[in-house]
Amino acid sequence: MARAAALAAARSGRRAGAFSLGPALAVPAALLVAAFLAAPLAVLFRYSLNRYSPREFMIDAVTAENYIRFFTDAYFIGVLATTVQVAAVCTAVSLLFAFPLAYLLARTDSRWKSALVIAVVFPLMVGNVVRAAGWMAVLGNDGIVNHALLGLGLVTQPVRLMYTPFAVHVGIIAVVLPYMILTLQSVIEGIGRDVEEAASNLGAGPITVFRRVLLPLSLPGVIAGSTLVFILCMNAYATPVLLGGPQFKMMAPALYDQFVRTTNWPFGAALAFILMVSTLVLTVIGTTVLSRRMHHRRLEAAPR
Amino acid sequence: MTRMTIGRRALVGAAAGLLAAPGVPRAQGGGRCVVGTWGGDYQDLLKANIDDPLMKPQGIEVLYDVAVAPPRKTKLLAERMTRRGTFDVACLSDIDMFEMAQQNLFDEPTPDLVPNMRNVIPALAKRYALPHIYSGKVILYNPAKMAKPRSYNDLWDPKLRGRVGLADGLYMQFIETAALINGGSPSNFEPAKKKLLELKALGAKVYPSNEALAAALKGEEVWATIMWLARGFMWKQAGIPVEHAVPEEGATPIVFDKAVPRNAPNKANGWKWMQAMLEPSAQAGFAARMGYVPTVRNATLPEDLAKQISFTEAEQEKFVKIDYQYIADNNAAYLDWWTREFKG
Amino acid sequence: MSELVLDRLRKEYGSFVAVDDVSLHVREGELVALLGPSGCGKTTTLRMIAGFIEPTAGRITIGGRDVTWDPPYRRDTGMVFQSYALFPHMTVAQNVAFGLEMRKVPRAEAETRVRRALDLVRLGHLADRLPRQLSGGQQQRVALARALVVNPGVFLLDEPLSNLDAKLRLEVRVEIRELQKRLGLTTVFVTHDQEEALTLADRLVVLDHGVVQQVGTPEELYEAPANLFVAGFIGRSNVLRGRVVERGRFVTEAGLALAVPTDGFEPGAAALALRPERITVIPGAAGNGVSGRVALVTYLGAATEYRVTLDGGESLTASMATPRPGDPLKRVGAGDVVTLTWPAETCRLLAPDRGAPTDEGGS
Ligand SMILES: Nc1ncnc2c1ncn2[C@@H]1O[C@H](COP(=O)(O)OP(=O)(O)O)[C@@H](O)[C@H]1O
Ligand SMILES: [Mg+2]
What we know:
The complex is a heterotrimer of chains A (about 300), B (about 350) and C (about 375). Chain B is built from 13 helices and 11 strands. With about 350 residues, chain B is of the alpha/beta class.
């Protein structure tokens, strides 16, 4: 990959006959990608074709049995389905929550703006484990929420919130929300306020302005943010383990189990690959659908 | 790993570099000894009881490669084909250590290298490693809520419905326990399955971590669990309302083992560290802070402390003899069962 | 098409007054230019009319309806933004159709109107382009078409020409005026360019520091500026400071005595404004007039400017049609003695209070 980039750089340099730094600038990044992404992936993929034995740990082989095991086992399919469902819901919900906040941040003239941005970013500085511990204090049987519910007399027994899918969703959304907000904010900031004003001046109410102007123009941000967040959700580890409890299984904890608890590297590697590929495929599909929609709307609106 | 090919070396090397935490710089022979260990209290105690009083006077500088066990295992595995590894001493629990030893990673200790190994309690001795400290699996219970249990079987009491808590990480311990009271043995856990499903039907709760279980015990959400006595001791110190009961089936020991890898960069110092570790003076220090008991016969504890954390001669007699090979061979299958059938 | 009335419209930002009690009556079909230096409150005023800014006080009525507190989308104004503010994700036709869509105009009618509007700005052939595929001038015309196509009650333009190059600016200016006249649009046009304002507007409003300085036709403002600011801002003026000493007589600070109409002025401090183009330059010393030496001659093509230092030390600039070869004036250069004359009635006395942004002056 790096060589290809370097070659391309050399070739284009010669052809153009003019000095251009552009392609050469890509070389360090390409090298990094090759060293830190491609190589480990290659190793991982190779491992996934090996065979596991409890005594010999990993036996050299070229076999698809790890993949076959995954796809013929309803349990693992279920784990993947749960993962996709959690990721999709969390992405959608965080998009819904993030948009208004991002808009506010992007449009405010307040001198508190940088303080607000820091407030949004702040949770990112807290580790996932610490954060999950915080959620335990909030959602636990004698956590804040239950205290409030009991105190208000809304319930007579503590409601089980910890170790439920609900807790996982809440926890993951709290983790990914800042990413979504910041991505959307930077895109919305790039959309001139005057465009919204122009729409409003032409008779569009706030909802129409949002639907016809703001949303289509922020679609690149929606796509970028959703992609980023979806990938983060698909790979969530600490939150599902700590908030979902032992019964709740997503892909990352499952593959951790394989690597660490049973030292089954080949199957763990296969899980890792399946997680990666399904994330990639779903991201590509989602991105394509969204961009199509962006395109369609443009054509539909054409008065012909 | 006789079947590993040469071509694999590059891959493993790459994996080692990528998977291993950025560790201590490679020790350069002479005066160093690199110990792969857990951090926190444990590391502090190693330094205070072994390294400062016993290694420093020998002019040996001890460096720590601090991590939890999985990365250490990964590093050991990944480095096994390389000539110079990271660790001179690797610390692991007995089960993990056996799993690694299966891969023929370690040099065998001999009394010539480590004279103190003559004092090791025979039940804890192994061919490939030396035991550092140990504890045993017992029942922890809330004395305000229930009578002192005598057998593991007492936890299957319908009166304790929903009041037994289990820490997810100790799945093999529960499986072993259930096997022992249902006609199984250390080499046959199959009977555990049925028995554990009964416990599940009785509403046993699984917590994702020891800390979560501790919180549940403290909040009296659950009243009993099966746990290492050492941890129970620490919990008690932290104000968690539990007492311990040694089950009549016998306690199962947990041992923190140390081994010197074949590719240790300063092997001689590794052995010197082992010798120091087994000094009676070094052993006692871990008891008060961590609740673990010395593994050498010539170390003594204050009587009061000993009562809380050690096992009587009779109890030691009844220690369950762990079949490490059985556990290593079946770990994956039982984890699978645990994850799907028990927790699912 | 409706009349627009601003009644003591005011906008404060904290203690800063951006628009200070502006009152204005724009008649149906009239084009009024809001003129003033940068930062004087033009945009703020226009945006209050459009509804993007809430006034601190005052009232806005469009066609007799009080819209002061109406949101922008219920005001029936058509605004052309300085930045054009085209919808980048819509084609030219979609941009223009947007306002019609909002008004639920039937599709067939909308298409006709969009086509007509685009033809009006001569962009019919670019209907399917995206804004980014157009030149600045073309984008500007799309913005015009988009605002015009809905027949807004009030047409608002905020420096619509400032992003165009000089030649294009002239062209589009003419186009805007023609369209506005043809459609009879009630229009408020914001600019800081006095020439633009003079050529386009039926009436001008000169603003400074948020305060209306004068309202009038271009001619009124030019011929009878209400104060030194207007005198300096609309066209150029020589300003000589001094005193009215008696009826019909003004003495400059340097002691030069001049005959001027002093109607409405009591003896006392005053300033005299005199347009450069009203001054005649006669080579050499002549009996009648004020004499001085030429300091600088600037050739401007059709006109030539003479900067003259008067004997008392004050200076005046005169603008003459560039003399033809053979004219004695042709030979006048720096250092030569000249005589300046002007009809007394072209002198205008003004209150001396405010400094004017003139590029020359008597002091
Ligand atoms: N949101 C605001 N907050 C504070 N001051 C403002 C704001 N908007 C405009 N101003 C000030 O009000 C004055 C008038 O601005 P504006 O109407 O944009 O001037 P212009 O005549 O150049 O269009 C300027 O001095 C500007 O700095
Ligand atoms: Mg402006």
